[in-house]
Amino acid sequence: MLRISDVIELAMVSRKTIYNAINSGRLKYQLVNVDNRQVRMFLEEDVFEAFPKTSRSTTQEQEMQALREEVASLKFALAELQKAVNAMDPEGQFEMTSVNEPAKKPGR
Fold first, then answer.
1. In the chain, % of residues over pLDDT 70
2. What superkingdom heads the lineage (predicted)?
3. What's the whole-number mean pLDDT along residues 83-104?
4. End-to-end CA separation in angstroms for the chain
């Protein structure tokens, strides 16, 4: 179940648009008690039915783009870390390894 803020992100529409869809009956919801208050909760299927032009492929494309950017950022950070390690001991050759394997220095 999704909260209104989740619906805004998923459907890529404004809060006002969501309330208009609720008031017109286009977007179905369920009232759920949360911390002694009633909160509107939505099913993902109902959101896609109410806002059909917001396709899942658009959401998936955005997610893929965000993941690509994160991978690029992590690759850059790894390269910078490797440079920093090499700058600390330019004669030694260090290799970035996993946490389970200790870093090895050749020849020592």
1. 77
2. Bacteria
3. 70
4. 58
